[in-house]
Amino acid sequence: MSLAVPALRINLSRDDLIMRAGVVAFVGVLLLIVGLPLWALLAKGFEDRNGNYVGVANYISYFSTPALFNSALNSFHVAAVCTAIVVPLSFLYAYALTRAVLPGRWLFQGISLIPIFAPSLLPGLALVYLFGNQGFFKGLMGGSIYGFDGIVIAQVFYCFPHATMIMVTALATADARLYEAADALGASKIRVFFTVTLPGAKYGLISAALVVFTLVITDFGIAKVIGGNFNVLATDVYKQVIGQQNFSMGAVVGMVLLAPAALAFIVDRLVQRKQVALLTARAVPLIPKPKFGRDLFFTLFCTLVSAGILAILGMAIWGSLIKYWPYNLSLTLANYDFANFDANGWESYFNSLRMALGAAIAGTALMFVGAWLNEKTRGFGAVRSIVQLLAFLPMAVPGIVLGLGYIFFFNAPNNPLNFLYATMAILVINTVAHFYTVGHLTATTALKQIDPEFESVSASLKVPIWKTFFRVTVPICLPAVLDIAIYLFVNAMTTVSSVIFLYAPDTKLASVAAVNIEEAGTTAAAAALCVVIVITSAAVKALHLLADRFLFARLQAWRKR
Amino acid sequence: MGKTSILRRVVLAGATVLAATGFGGNAWAQKTKLTVYTAIENEQLEPFKKAFEADNPTIEIAWVRDSTGVVTAKLIAEKDNPRADVIWGLAASSIGLFASLGMIEPYTPAGAAALKPMFKSGKTPETWVGMDAYLAVLCFNTAEAAKGKKAKPTSWADLTKPEYKDSIVMPNPASSGTGYLTVAGWLTIMGEDAGWKFMDALHQNVAQYLHSGSAPCVQAAKGERLMGIGFDMRGATEKTKGAPIDLIVPKEGLGWEMEVTAIMKGTKNLAAAKKLADYSSSLKANEMYGKYYAIVANPAVKSMPANYPPDGEKMMAKMDVEWMAKNRDRILAEWTKRYDGKSAPKAK
Prior knowledge:
The structure holds 2 protein chains of 2 kinds. Chain A is mainly α. Helices cover 71% and strands 1% of the residues of chain A. Chain A has helices at 4-10, 14-42, 57-63, 66-99, 105-117, 121-131, 148-172, 176-184, 189-218, 221-226, 233-243, 247-274, 292-321, 347-376, 381-396, 399-410, 424-434, 436-448, 453-460, 465-494, 510-519, 523-550, and strands at residues 322-324, 328-331. Chain A has a two-stranded antiparallel ribbon with strand order 1-2. In chain A, a hairpin with a 3-residue loop joins strand 1 (322-324) and strand 2. In chain A, helix 2 packs parallel to helix 15 (381-396), helix 7 runs parallel beside helix 18 and helix 14 packs across helix 17. Chain B is an alpha/beta fold. In chain B, strand 1, helix 2 and strand 2 (59-65) form a beta-alpha-beta unit. In chain B, strands 1, 2, 3, 4, 5, 6, 7, 8, 9, 10 and 11 form an 11-stranded mixed beta sheet that branches. Chains A and B meet through helix 4, helix 11, helix 14, helix 16 and helix 17 of A and helix 1, helix 2, strand 2, helix 3 and strand 7 of B.
């Protein structure tokens, strides 16, 4: 790792120059899709409603409102509780998937992802069906589902796959030789866990914690449906922007919401410095061997978690078939005839498919190449920090803020890119930008686990760096690349808060239609559309798992001894 | 075979994305495409479009529809480079805001003279012309009331009775236009002092302040709450679908808002936009509004869609739209200070 640093002081090779040019170009792209649109809105925090510059007056008036402090406290409280629940849960689940021998492992892996397939409306609706005032199990909830408890349950459901995905990537790439050595030295299982497993997964653990924390802080959809009177920062943004069209104040709250992202960025920098490549060129992949007690425990654990996820999904499916909740529980398929509830009918579903496909292809290429440029460029620390910062921002930005920023930036009369506005392309770009962080983290985590020796050897053999990229890096990281593509696809199918400002008459999306349908009171039809979205994403994921198993297994064969 | 067809599909879908993004545009030049922003209900989009296009075969409507708050925010954000030609069906208060920002092209549509005065902006030429009015009524779930042996309220004052503790939902005026007109309605009917005193008492019984004007009546309809204060049309449609609710017009009177039509300044299709504005004020269009709303702009239309309270129009408060706009920030700040600053509805 440290070999590279002294060399670079002497002179820069052609590869170095190409890589640096690539990083600079990449910074340009991130500025266009994240930095500038965001600034276009956040700058309004320093203006009054008529666009006159007022300095920090809006901040002063906001910080002197007691309601803010209360919302901020609530946001941090709920985010901290969710993080404390989700991170250990997803670690154990990912550990089971990667380090234990589970019967039906593929099924457990698939089920763990279901929440990510669902629009955030779905857990909200399902929880109301289950624990609401007319719910089947309302007695089980001590109090009302509306409020803190409801938000926590729905957020844990919603964040679980995000964290699990990061943890699986972190735990999947382990060097079996370390475990063999530990075994040979007679280290106890617990000692091995704390000295080999945990340090190896540290980067993933911290990433997962940061992702969950910021997801909870910025999500508005769940708080809206099930939050009751529990005010959070994301609801404050909604009130200012949608309720009162006060973009200045919305920008102020949006800026406050960036604080966790800044924190995440600093923590990430600190952790990264200590991260060591796990998968050295001589590494041997770890294949778990059957062990009865451990496997039984993890099978039970995964069954329990899966049952919880399936209960919520199952309730939504049942709800989508009910005629008129709760007074007429007879079943019907009429709720799936979307033309009765939305003028676009099924059309918005096909728009969603096209948008999701576009985002998956364009976004994965951008994220992986970008993360690779950023990881493998030697030196150039300052510019690479900018990349890291820009890649972290989207996670902390509420969709409302990003969506409005896109209007201000891409619809500006003097922006040469304004031909993109009101097209499918802007929805694709916006979605890639909105979900940039997790894709970037996944790519970075995967890339970090590759020994830089690969590049050093290539360089000494005078193999151009892009050849190494296509021949070594991409094949090794193919599982992560596919994970990113699927992640983008499924999020594009469900995203609402940002694209709701950007769709044009012929590009309305299913996720937006579901929210509109729910607002019109036809809860069952909204649930039905959510179910269709879940099934679509689940089918795509199933294809991915099959491909992974039969097609790409060959590409990963070199890892086996 | 399997692999190639997947590959082909990916390529095809990729091409579709390109086609949709790059070349979706003005392929059909002979029809004028009018971009119309609206917040009317989903089920009205298709009939409204068809009716207008039948009379104006050279014009095609492309809807951009979302909730009032989203459409209003979007229009303001697009101010420097407007994308909408016409607004057909958005709250008058939103259009008032646009007019003050210089976003509206004044035009008095043919047929405006026949409309009730309250449904016009009063300017010459008009900045906007009204279509229909909606009320913030009380949706009361009779099935749940029977279970809990709760009496049916007839006035706003009744809502402060202890028997309704935690059983009322209403929209949060800071997030919903319907919420604001409800609160402004109370302040208008009762006067400021008595109005705030009433809300203090009501607050004891409010289970939750929701973020939308439709949600309260929907929650009441589904028995999630005993009653909701909200948008009348939503309550009427839920009742038609079989919900055990009654729509109550409290005897003190109530707040209301109207849906209006206006032309965007800078539209490239001004002639077609005027055609739509003319159509929107026509008797024919008003009859169409009357299929969905009990109160419409043209006094000649005497329709009463199913399940609306019959006496709504008489009970409309004398709302001063300009006062409402001017005092909005002050009222919302006061409201937020009193009721929104804490996580649970407790004594002030």
